[in-house]
Amino acid sequence: MDEYKYLGIVNWAKEVIREKNLSAGDKFYSETELCGIHNVSRQTVRQALAYMERQGILSRRQGSGSFIQSPNPVSIEKNSNLVGIVSTYFSDYIFPSIVTGIERVLTNNNVSMQLMTTSNQVAEEARALEKMLAQNVSGLIVEPSKSALPNPNMALYNEIRARDIPLVFFNAKYSWSGNPLVAMDDYAAGQIATEHLISLGHRKITGIFVFDNMQGHKRYQGFMNSLIEHNIPMPEKRVLWFPAGEHSTLFVKSGSGLSSLLDDSTAVVCYNDSVAVELLGFCKQQGRSVPDDLSIVGIDDSKLAKICEIPLTSVQHPKQQLGETAATILLEQMANPSFKAKDTLFLPKLIKRASSGPIGSQGCEQSEVIV
After folding, report:
1. 266 and 277 together in one domain
2. Which of these, 74, 96, 177, 283, has the minimum number of CB atoms within 10 Å of its CB?
3. Contact yes or no for 324/296 (Cβ under 8 A)
4. HSE of 224 in the Cβ direction (CA atoms, 13 Å)?
5. CB-based burial of residue 241 (10 Å sphere; 0-12 exposed, 13-18 middle, 19+ buried)?
6. Total domains in the fold of the chain
């Protein structure tokens, strides 16, 4: 992203300082020289210089230029009592429970937290990470934005790595990252949801998944492999993909093709409960009976699953336990830099409710059944 080009200059400058063994008081390149070297605007160079000044790498003197302030710019004192939390969302769905779990562990260990949300936008992720770096946090717990797509914030993650700031991802992580992940086993979630429907006799099963995050890809993999293992043919037309946060477009009456697809389906595995609840509403508008005409299974077992008109069968997300585990791993990394954490995946459970049943069923009990 052009907006964050200055971070590339920052990383380049640190390498130059190291390679040339520059000392405190040595003069650094001028704005004009940096513009020519990096072929960028003066505004971009000034952003880079201002950032390095905030980090204590450079000091700028009016009319004289920029000078090295610290010959070892990576050695920035961290705020040992502050951890940064970057989440895609917070106010609803499963996110408050995850953050509550994180906060409980940090508070019990006398560590404060700074929470920022990104609305699953990479530009907002960049702003959040930059703010955390400016506050010299001693650790980070991050839910990545659009984790299945190439990420433009590599300079920021390189900066985190250069400063030796412990980082734990939750729910998903970027494919290039060597940092630990704490998540539900999303592959298992897709498989469990599909196996449940197959056990009820369904063969024409549609899947609806997010394409721009890793959770969607893994849930799709579990869904598809379950069908393959049961020798169930799976036409590609039975899989619908959508970008995260835009699932409402699937349920527009005209143009989506969803209605005709459902005519030839007896069950649907939904990426999450939000999609499943909207699908319930869509079926009601069309006069489709759930589960008589169509069985529906969600994933995450959010509050939505319990309060909707037809209680939703869903795969249970660990939520608070996930948050507690992520915070525990981060604190261990902060206390012991040599600690190498592995990924932690929680095996989910299916919560049976009224939205799923055998083909031609007359409904099922409203009470929850965990399998």
Report:
1. yes
2. 74
3. no
4. 15
5. middle
6. 3
